[in-house]
Amino acid sequence: MIVTVIVISLVIGFVVAAGVVGTQAQRLGRQRREPVWRLAEAAEFVSDLLPFDIAASLDADELEALLRQHLNQLQFGPAESAGVAAGDTDGTASDASTTITEDRSSAADLYRSVRRDGLEVTLEQVYAVVDAHLEYLRRIGALAAVSPDGG
User: For residue range 83-113, what is the model confidence (pLDDT) as tens digits?
Assistant: First the structure.
């Protein structure tokens, strides 16, 4: 009799635990994954997309500095990003209140900013890195297409 009660309580405990785990797994499965920007991953992706002559002319430190500064510019805007230290990013690349456009003025702002910081790069290199970096951000889900009418 006591063995039967123990077996029944174990079965009931297992069924309850399986139900709770299944419910939580479904809930977590429906949640959107947050994109995470990783410098090494971004640098590798961007260097693979760059034209050969531009990739050959940039060393790894210059590319990483450009990527950090570009991410700071996207997060904080061109005016504020100049004062943000390179290591101050928190690893996320999404900001719901920011709309990213692919015009050349943001790349020109980035160029002026990195030149002011002493980085020896050309405007053509910055354009290529910005385009490749925006593609990386799209791939990780940090940027999404927005219709021109705001919807």
Answer: 444 444 444 444 444 455 556 778 888 899 8
Q: Please state the separation of Cα 125 from the chain's center in Å.
A: 21
Q: What is the mean pLDDT of residues 50-63?
A: 92
How far apart (Å, rounded) are the C-alpha atoms in residues 126 and 108?
A: 8
The pLDDT confidence band at residue 125, using thresholds 50, 70 and 90, is very high
Mean pLDDT of 37-48: 92
Q: Are residues 95 and 57 in the same domain?
A: yes
Q: How far is CA 94 from the centre of its chain?
A: 7
Q: Is 86 exposed, middle or buried (0-12, 13-18, 19+ CB in 10 A)?
A: middle
Say which amino acid occupies 59: D
Closest CA to 135 of 60, 39, 40, 45: 45
Please indicate, yes or no, if residue 148 is contained in any of the structural domains: no
How far is residue 46's CA from residue 126's CA, in Å, rounded to a whole number?
A: 12
Please give the Cα distance from 74 to 84 (Å, whole number).
12
Residue 145 resides in a domain:
no
- For residue 143, give the nearest of 103, 135, 68 by alpha carbon: 135
